[in-house]
Amino acid sequence: MEIVLKNPDTSVKENVAYLQAVLLYTSSTGQRMIRVHNMPIMIATSKQDLWNGVNMSATTNWLARQAAMRLTMTPLARGRLSIQEAVENVCRVYKEQNRTQLRTAEDYPVSWCSWPLITLGLLKSVAFRDEPIVSVDERSAMFLTFGQQHCNLPTFSSVLPSTRSTSS
């Protein structure tokens, strides 16, 4: 992996940066090929922009993976609690940095509006639920295949009112 900053002595004048990933591979026919992916990334100009730009589905996926790793050494209840504590810690840091109280849904960043539902869905998933009892094999299979799709809101539409459910 290599990171290259062009003109590191100058400040960023635009509100977007580009992440480029390049893959050199050999096709099944023996031909060498290069695949290039470019991804624009918005640059935050304020703390609020930074908080609003958080992808909660990806964040929840990361939290779930961390909790899943802990489950190899701790009981299920501790793994479930670690997810709750991670969410609380993020909210605490947000509250401290913005010097605000989090009392109503309007007090949170807009991008966080579905985070409680995503987290609830995660805790009800086969990977982390405690009741009804899940077999060890089924739970292990869930951890091995755990990915972004398990943390997306449509996956957990059963916990949403039908007026808030989304379809893909």
Strand content: 5-15%
The side-by-side strand order for the widest beta sheet comes to 1-2
Give a count of the beta strands, DSSP E runs of length 2 or more. Answer: 2
Shape: flat
Biggest sheet architecture: 2 strands, antiparallel
Q: What is the H/E order? A: EEHHHHH
Secondary structure: helix percent:
25-40%
Number of helices: 5
Average pLDDT score: 75
Low-confidence stretches: 150-168
In short:
This protein is an alpha+beta fold and 168 residues long. The chain has helices at 47-52, 56-70, 76-98, 115-124, 136-144, and strands at residues 16-26, 32-42.
Description:
38% of the residues lie in helices and 13% in strands. The chain contains five helices and two strands. The protein has 168 residues and is α+β, with helices and mostly antiparallel strands. It has helices at residues 47-52, 56-70, 76-98, 115-124, 136-144, and strands at residues 16-26, 32-42. The longest helix is centred in the middle third of the chain and has 23 residues, at 76-98. It has a two-stranded antiparallel ribbon with strand order 1-2. Mean pLDDT is 75; it is low at 150-168. The protein is flat, with a radius of gyration of 20 Å.
List the helices and strands and how they pair.
Blueprint lengths: L15 E11 L5 E11 L4 H6 L3 H15 L5 H23 L16 H10 L11 H9 L24
Antiparallel strand pairs: 1-2
Helix pairs in contact: 2-3, 2-4
Any key phrases for this structure?
168 residues; alpha+beta; two-stranded antiparallel ribbon; 5 helices; disordered C terminus
